[in-house]
Amino acid sequence: MQFLYPNFLFALAALTIPIIIHLFYFRRFKKVYFTNVRFLKEVKEETSARQKLRNLLVLLMRCLAVALLVFAFAQPFIPQDVEVKKGENAVSVFVDNSFSMSALSQDVPLVEKAKQRAREIISAYAVEDRFQVLTNDFEGRHQRLVGKEEAIGLVEEIKATPAVRSLSQILARQKQALDSGTGQNKVSYVISDFQANVTDIENVKDTTLAVNLVPLQAVQERNVSIDSAWFEAPVQVLQQPNPLIVKVKNWSNEKAENIRLGVKYDGETKPLGELSIPANSSLTDTVNITIQTPGWHEAQLDITDYPVQFDDAYLFSYNVALSINVLVINELSPETYLDAAFRGISYFKVTNQVSRNLDYSSFPGYQLIICNGLTSLSSGLSFELKQYIENGGNLLVFPAASANIGAYKAFLESIPANEFLSFEQQERVVSDINTSEFVFKDVYENKSANLKLPATKGNFILSTFASRGEERLLTYRDGTTYLGKYKAGQGILYLCSAPLEEDYSNLARSGEIFVPMLYKMAISSARARPIAYTIGRDETIEADNMVRGGESVYKLRGAGEEFIPQQRIVASKVFLGVQNQIHKAGFYDLFLNQDSTLGKFAFNYDRRESDLAYLSDTQLEERALANMSIVKTNAAADLTEIVSDRSRGVILWKWCVLLALLALAAEVLILRFWKT
Description:
By secondary structure, the chain is α/β, with parallel strands linked by helices. β4 and β5 form a beta hairpin. The two termini are 41 Å apart. The mean pLDDT is 85.
């Protein structure tokens, strides 16, 4: 047993008071007149013994009452497994309100059980203590310390949220708030189901804060979710099947069967069949989406899975241009083979320009630029082409046989790409085609068929710097590069080592190579625009800048809400910050004016909550740091009493007061009914 205020024990000196009273009051003698001395002697002996016993009991009760009252003021307690501290407390209570807390704990959702536990923890502390109530939302109003009644009110307002925070983030936020207060004792409580993928105890840096982990056990549920989806091609084409890859994941330890998958777009819902997914595995499926109209489109993938449903829908958006614009930059007259190749695909819109008369400002409007037979690249053109590539453009270069090697070298170094060393007039035959790369991937059903690969009568020898990151698409028999690919920024450079002129190459006559190559290059991209974003993770989205001079404010509009995101314009792009402004999955339109939509963005809930694997009490104890303790409770336990005992020990002063009153009552009874 220990005392919270041991200085009060000096008051035990007051025990001398009842002893002094006993010595001087009960020893006084009275004169009694009696006729027969013999009888008086007998009565005196008997009365003296009883009187002595009575007086000793009265003294004992008085001493006991005084001692117990002194103990009550000293506040004795029996310490538990944590150190008891004196002074004002600053208490932070985190209530996990993520989607996983919607799972049932017996008959109520876990989040309601967590709110009950939070109220019980707050009730265990004194009125003068200060409290922080924190949730996954990390709201500004939850970053201050409040009184007891206001803290309980904040707990009542807690609702489920798509936000997900790791344990290390939570503890850092709690410490920040607790350090802003004046409380001498800082203590943290984390009430959660402690999902394994967010309980990153190993990342906790500060070990000075006293942390109490309050685990809540959910009824184990199986869960299947749509993990992600993406188009196979970076650019979606009108009136053509656009393959969409869908990844569905089974998070449980049991095989998931009869999972129905469907897609909804352009106002139609199409069932895609049923899936069977092995335990703890994922499955990918391909959905062909045929787009009939240009512009922005909204679409949604769905599966049937109960009872966890927040991750059963996956929203995505995409933009289909009315045409793919291609710019061909020629030295003099247009190349007839290029015109013929694009003429066969009505979806392409080709513009021919002469290198001496170019409109550089129009470059961002083209998905593919082809430099055909240019003898030299001016510094201005080189700079604009480099900027075009870095901003997401695709550039295909066919050099002239008489090309200025120095001018080309300066441009290729800036990308960087392998450079032209010399031109050799020697017959070579392409022997290998890279069908694993996007340009030629899935173009040929029979990859082993005898394709008519191009041959050349002259080509440039390229340097072979490994640091340039060359990816060979077409290769000569001697292993040198005929057509190479280089990523730069968000765009791609395709570099051919031979001219396109028929005097040096028959590539234009190899239709089974040339036509699909141009088509796939035009719709390729080093970084495709995301078709979906994740709430809480993707805090910045990118769009094309439609403002040319002056100042305008971009806005985002969702279902029933509209807000102005943070905005940063860089060249032809605008970067929009949506930090903590999107809380509900849905489609959000970007606009400058109410009547025009500049873009559509689909936001989905974070899939980290889909994994319903939790850490048990034993696992938490094994991973817990020295400053962490596990508060174990059963469903019916009153956490107020448990927290009170842990923070202040088993309080005994109330028992001392009660026993003191009983001692005084016993004294009164002795004095009243024990007659001498």
